[in-house]
Amino acid sequence: MATVDHLLTIEAAQRAVSEHVSPGRAVSVPLGEAIGRVLAKPIVCDVDYPPFDKAMMDGYAVRAADVAETPAVLRIVGQVAAGHEAAKRVGAGEAIQINTGAPLPPGADAVVPVENTECVQDGSAVSVSVAVPAGKHIDPAAKYVLAGSTVLSPGVRMGPAQIASAAAAGAAEISIYARPSVAILVTGDELVDVDAQPRGAQIRNSNGPMLRSLVTQAGGEVVDLGVVCDDKSALTDRIREGLASDVLCISGGISMGAFDFVPEVLASCGVRIVFRKLAIKPGKPVLFGIGERGTRVFGLPGNPSSGFVCFRLLVRPALATLSGRDERRPVEIAARLIGDCPATKDRQGYSPARIAIDGDGSVTVEHLSWHGSGDPFGLSCANGLIVRPPGLPKAVGGDTVSVIPLEWF
Amino acid sequence: MATVDHLLTIEAAQRAVSEHVSPGRAVSVPLGEAIGRVLAKPIVCDVDYPPFDKAMMDGYAVRAADVAETPAVLRIVGQVAAGHEAAKRVGAGEAIQINTGAPLPPGADAVVPVENTECVQDGSAVSVSVAVPAGKHIDPAAKYVLAGSTVLSPGVRMGPAQIASAAAAGAAEISIYARPSVAILVTGDELVDVDAQPRGAQIRNSNGPMLRSLVTQAGGEVVDLGVVCDDKSALTDRIREGLASDVLCISGGISMGAFDFVPEVLASCGVRIVFRKLAIKPGKPVLFGIGERGTRVFGLPGNPSSGFVCFRLLVRPALATLSGRDERRPVEIAARLIGDCPATKDRQGYSPARIAIDGDGSVTVEHLSWHGSGDPFGLSCANGLIVRPPGLPKAVGGDTVSVIPLEWF
Description:
alpha/beta, seven-stranded mixed sheet, Molybdopterin biosynthesis moeA protein, domain 3, Molybdenum Cofactor Biosythetic Enzyme, Chain A, six-stranded mixed sheet, 4 domains
C-alpha cells in the first residue's frame, strides 16, 4: 500500500493495519496463568477419558439381569467410593454400594440409583424397586476422549471451561501466544502528572493512564515511555526507544501545528508512513507507519475521546491479532435506538452510547450527549459507540443502529 | 427464607443468594490499578475544565472583527504553543500563531485554522481567507466541568475512558470496592494434580483450576484450600478455614452418596443451609448456606460442566454484587437459533452454545452437541449457554432463544 495523505476510510485503514500484523511467538506458561490467552499449540489428552467405566449415580453396582424383575433383593458384598477400586467382584444376586465417580466393580454392568433402593435385612441386603438395563448410569471408559486425541486446538481462547479441559487432559504447561509489547509515549509541553496541580497553560496527562489501561485490557504488555516535551531531539530519542517494542503508540503531536513534530521525527527514524488521516469523527488525524524492524507505529490524536476511538478501531484489533485472536475489526451489533442520534456529515461517526438489554433479551442503545472530542469526560458514561456511516440523516427512536460494545454487558 | 430440600427454581435461588450479598468495604488504590474495579466514592474534579480558554485548532489567534472581511492581512506578533502562555496580547490588525491546546492570548477572541491562512510578507504577516465568528475554535474555560463537580459517581466500573476522566480530574488515588475473598475447596479421594499421572480409579483435578480461573475472572481474590479427601475430620478442618473468607466454594461431596459428607459437616460447622437442589439441568445438586459470621457457602456439583453452570448462575452474580457491580443474574440476550436445540423436560436447561454476530449485526447461536454434564470437554468450544425453560419442545433453526454470553464477542 502506498503512502497516503488523503482521508482514508476506516475499512481501508483496518485492512492496511492487518497486513502488518500476525500472531506473535509462542511461549510456554503454567496452566494457572493462561486465563484469557490464546492457545498456540494443540492440547492432546494423555489418557482415555474417563480412564475406566465410571459410576454416574450414587447407588448400587449390579448385574442388570438380576434386577430385570422388581422388587429384587440383592446381597450387599462391599462398598466402593470414588478414588478406590472394588475389592470384590459382583456375582449373581449380589450388589456393591457405589459412589458417583467410582470405577464399576468387575461383574457389574449397571448402577441402580440409591433413590430406587431400600436397605433390608439389617443392612446386609438391598431391595431394588426399579429395573435398569445394562450400561445404565455408567460412563464407559474412553466415552469422551481416546488417549492421543486433541481436546483443544490452536486459536482457542483459554477461559475457565478450556482450563478445566486442559487440566483433565494433563496439560500442566501450555503453549500460548506471547503478549505483544506496546510502548506508550505521550507528547505535549502542557501535560502534568495526575498528582500535580496544573498551573497557567497546563492540563493533566489523562492520555497516558487511558492508553496504559487500554493496552492492558487488550492483552498487551505496557512499556511506559512517559511524557516527552514538544522538542525534536527528545522526541527522536524516545521514538528510537519505542521502536524496540512490537507496537509503538504515540499520543499527540501529529496534527498540523507548528510543534507537531511526530511525523517528521518518525520519518527521520526510518518509519514508513502508511496513512495519516481517516474519514472518521472523532479521530481524523491518526497516523500508522512501519518501522525498519517492523514495529507498528500508531500516532493517536491528543484529544482523549479521539485517541480512545482510534485505539479501539485500529490498535486493539492489531493487538488481538498479535495475541492470536481473530478480531480484525471491532464487533458491531444491531441495536434498537432509544431517543435520537444526530446526522452525520462527510465522515463516519462514532459517538458515545449506553447499551442495555431489554427484558425480552433485545439490545437497545441510547446516544449520550457530549461536548465533542475535546471533552475528557465525554465517554465516562458510555459502554458502547454508535457507528454511523457518512451522509446519514438524524436517526430516531426505534431505528436500528450499529453499536460497538465497550465492555461486558 | 426457610431451609428447603425440594427443587427450587433458579430465580428463587438467585433471589435467596442476593439477600445475603451487598457491596463490600471500600479500599483506596492508585488510579493505575483501578481497571475493571467499581468506584465506591465519587470523583470530584479539582479544577475547571478546561482551566483556560483553549485553542481547538492549529492556526492563528485573532480578533474576529479583524477578519470579518476577507482576505484580511494581519501582522504576526508572536507564537504560543500548548503548555505555554502568550508573551503578548493580540491588538487590532494582529495575529499570534497558536497550537491546539494552547491558551488563547489576551485580546484574541477566535482561532483561524491554518488551512485557511497563508504566510505573507516573508513570514511577518498572515493572510486569512475565511472569516470566523468570535468564539470559533475555542473551548472556553470550564466548558466541560466546573471545579468541585462530580465527574464519576459510585457504582461506575473503571474502564479506560473512566480512568482518563479520573486522571483529568486529578484523582491519583481512588476509592473502589475491595475484591471479595473466595476460598476454594475441592473434595474427592479420586483426584490427582494436573501434573500427576492418574492410576487405577483416579482422575485429574480439573475443578480446582476451573474454579480458580472463574473466581479470578469474576473479580474475586482466590484463597486456594486445595483438595481434601472424603474424610469428615479433614473436611471439617478445611471448611472451618474456608469460613474465614467472604465466600466459600466447595466442589463435590454434596450429592446422595455414602461419602458425600459436605452437608453434614457444614451443619456441624454452624452453616445454615438455605437450599440444596435446583430445578436446573445440569446442576441439580447445588447447595447454598450461610456461615455463623455471614460467609456465603456454595456447594457445587463435582461434574465440571455442572459446576461451571452453577458458578455462572449463582456464584458469579454474588461476587459481582460484593464487588459493587449490579449483576443480580447473568445477562440473557435473544439470538436466532441455527440448527436444532433439544426439548427440555422438568428442569430449566442450560446447554453449551456458540454465539456469533452476523454481517448485519444480528446475534445467532448454535447448540453444541455434548455428552452431558460428565464430559469435562463439553464446554471447550462454547462461548455461550442456551437457556430453555422446562417443558419446551425441540427448538428449530430460525427460532429465537435466550443465551448467556460467556465471553467478549
